[in-house]
């Protein structure tokens, strides 16, 4: 009996620790990473040993309840992280709590993407629950409890300390983001951090960083302005007029951020209007829109400000609405005598646009209610989306009243889900299914959604023509991101061009069109940061180019596409972080050039966060 009590005391925490290691290995395996990471396993044992020691402080029924509840919670967190990863190819972070609204936009898809493999988590969960039932907890703490508590606590501290001592550390500034220390201190690459350190250490460090960054944000601002000044001076984005300067001066603008418009979506039959504009206007064939913390919300911020969005703090549209953005595209068009209004067929609370767009310089933001659009039933939200054609009609009623207008329109028809749930797309589906050759219904519905968006552009052009201002209006259409809810395997199965090239997934359309413009294709590498400076040049606006992270793409300056994982692309070379290789395109892309680019990447992210945190432009 005495021996059985000893086994019982030790059996429950041992099963608990084994279960934690199993869950941690499963999440890495299912996300496509190496399930056996020594650092992650040691951190898992360290974390679970400490929790197991805490559990031994309880007596009687309280002990198995503690073990059961904490283990069930960690299993739920693991599955939740995998579902999030399925959509965004990144793991959730605590400082993204304000961005849960973005997750709600794919809520209708969550049950659809649940796979049988997730049930594997029931095995360690059942094992731990069975151990909690089988090994009876004593009503009183024994000397064995005390010994095991001390042993597990010491083991936890030793394993955590020793594992951190094995971290690699780069010898030069440019390679910092390739070492374990920088990765652990910043968690900048959440996929790699999860792979290297495991779920529990990732979560603990993530919470620690969120608290630290929030404390930073509340400190007195203005302390870093000299460092920021030096950075922008070193960027040297001094503007020199070029052959494209002012070619659209005085013309109206409809600036359209197209939901999930992917480069492969432009199709002669599925999207005939976009296909025409692409071939008749200025088309930027190497335009990238990287993901950072958000997807749509970050593209929206960057394409309005040419600034780095929040990475360390909460989502930009919630955390920094009180900041000053005098260099925003709306502000500079207003200085030129334009009205500046924005439109979206969702509510003003979504992404906090009521307040956010005011801080971006817009005179007014018109949401679904203000536009008089039909409200969908609550169950239809995030499944059937309001019509983009109706959005264009309602927006036109407003901005066509102004003499000169800059109108920002955010569309929705291209949004997920791409399934039979989208009853409003039935006609579009019937049309595109006759020529989109794919056995995957999701791909066909994606083209149906973009066909609906394409029809809205035709409606907009009709309204401009009817009002007699089409010749005096420029359409700027760009995708916010690729359709990430469609699994990348499906995208590559449909079109294997650049298969397994994660950076190329971030390539989306950008086209600028007005009647009579000379068609041209711009091959220069470009990204969303370059949109505002390029627009300022084309319209000859009074713009502060020297305090933008992007460039006028028609200048002699070089654009750098910087991805969320610190990979990058220029016209001369690239670093693909996913496959961890450098590639030179010409004689300029030397080893020293690549080292300079690595430093530039780190500086951009670090200074970009300080610009937001210190409200740099308010001074």
Q: Can you describe what's shown?
A:
The protein contains 22 helices and 14 strands. It starts with a helix and ends in a 6-residue tail after the last helix. It has helices at residues 2-30, 38-55, 62-88, 100-104, 110-113, 122-134, 143-165, 180-186, 190-217, 225-235, 272-280, 296-305, 316-319, 329-335, 353-359, 368-371, 388-399, 426-432, 441-466, 488-494, 531-538, 591-613, and strands spanning 252-258, 282-284, 287-288, 339-344, 364-366, 405-410, 473-479, 510-513, 520-522, 526-527, 561-562, 568-569, 573-576, 581-584. By secondary structure, it is of the alpha/beta class. Helix 15 (353-359) links the parallel strand 4 (339-344) and strand 5. It folds into two domains: 2-165, no CATH class; 247-563, Alkaline Phosphatase, subunit A (3-Layer(aba) Sandwich), CATH 3.40.720.10. The strands form three sheets. Strands 5-4-6-1-7-8-2-9 form an eight-stranded mixed β-sheet, with helices on both faces. GO terms for molecular function: hydrolase activity; transferase activity. Belongs to the LTA synthase family. It comes from Turicibacter sanguinis.
């Amino acid at each position: 009996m005495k021996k059985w009590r000893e086994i019982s005391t030790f059996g429950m925490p041992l099963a608990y620790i084994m279960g934690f290691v199993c869950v941690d290995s499963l999440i890495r395996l299912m996300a496509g990473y190496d399930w056996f990471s020594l650092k992650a396993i040691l951190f898992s044992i360290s974390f679970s040993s400490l929790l197991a020691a805490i559990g031994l402080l309880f007596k009687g029924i309280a002990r198995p309840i503690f073990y059961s509840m904490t283990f069930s919670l960690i299993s739920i967190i693991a599955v939740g992280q995998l579902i999030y990863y399925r959509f965004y190819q990144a793991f959730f972070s605590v400082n993204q709590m304000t961005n849960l609204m973005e997750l709600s936009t794919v809520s209708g898809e969550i049950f659809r993407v649940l796979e049988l493999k997730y049930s594997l988590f029931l095995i360690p969960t059942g094992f731990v629950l069975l151990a909690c039932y089988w090994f009876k907890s004593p009503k009183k703490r024994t000397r064995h409890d005390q010994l095991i508590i001390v042993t597990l606590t010491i083991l936890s501290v030793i394993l955590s300390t020793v594992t951190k001592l094995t971290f690699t550390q780069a010898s030069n500034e440019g390679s910092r983001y390739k070492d374990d220390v920088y990765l652990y201190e910043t968690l900048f690459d959440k996929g790699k951090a999860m792979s290297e350190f495991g779920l529990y250490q990732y979560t603990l460090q993530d919470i620690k960083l969120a608290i630290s960054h929030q404390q930073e944000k509340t400190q007195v601002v203005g302390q870093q302005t000299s460092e920021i000044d030096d950075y922008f001076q070193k960027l040297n984005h001094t503007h020199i007029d070029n052959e494209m300067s002012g070619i659209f001066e005085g013309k109206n603008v409809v600036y359209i951020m197209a939901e999930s418009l992917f480069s492969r979506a432009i199709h002669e039959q599925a999207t005939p209007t976009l296909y025409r504009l692409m071939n008749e206007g200025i088309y930027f064939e190497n335009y990238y829109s990287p993901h950072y913390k958000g997807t749509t919300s970050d593209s929206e911020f960057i394409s309005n400000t040419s600034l780095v969005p929040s990475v360390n703090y909460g989502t930009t549209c919630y955390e920094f609405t009180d900041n000053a953005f005098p260099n925003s595209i709306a502000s500079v068009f207003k200085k030129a005598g334009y009205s500046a209004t924005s439109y979206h067929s969702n509510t003003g609370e979504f992404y906090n646009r009521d307040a956010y767009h005011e801080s971006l310089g817009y005179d007014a933001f018109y949401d679904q209610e203000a536009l008089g659009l039909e409200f969908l039933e609550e169950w239809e939200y995030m499944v059937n989306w309001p019509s983009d054609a109706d959005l264009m009609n309602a927006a036109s009623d407003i901005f066509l009243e102004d003499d000169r207008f800059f109108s920002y329109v955010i569309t929705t028809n291209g949004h997920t889900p791409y399934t039979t749930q989208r009853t409003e797309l039935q006609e579009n589906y019937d049309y595109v299914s006759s020529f989109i050759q794919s056995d995957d219904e999701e791909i066909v519905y994606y083209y149906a959604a973009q066909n609906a968006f394409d029809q809205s552009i035709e409606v907009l052009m009709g309204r401009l023509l009817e009002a007699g201002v089409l010749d005096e209006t420029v359409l700027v259409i760009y995708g916010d991101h690729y359709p990430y809810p469609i699994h990348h395997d499906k995208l590559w199965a449909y079109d294997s061009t650049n298969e397994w090239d994660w950076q190329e997934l971030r390539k989306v359309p950008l086209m600028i069109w007005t009647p009579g413009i000379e068609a041209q294709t711009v091959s220069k590498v470009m990204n969303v940061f370059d949109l505002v400076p390029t627009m300022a040049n084309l319209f000859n606006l009074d713009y502060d180019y020297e305090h933008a992270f992007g460039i006028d793409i028609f200048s002699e300056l070089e654009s750098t596409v910087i991805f969320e994982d610190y990979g990058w692309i220029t016209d001369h070379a690239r670093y693909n972080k996913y496959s961890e290789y450098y590639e030179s395109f010409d004689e300029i892309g030397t080893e020293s050039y690549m080292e300079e680019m690595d430093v530039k990447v780190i500086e951009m992210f670090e200074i970009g966060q300080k610009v937001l945190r210190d409200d740099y432009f308010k001074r």
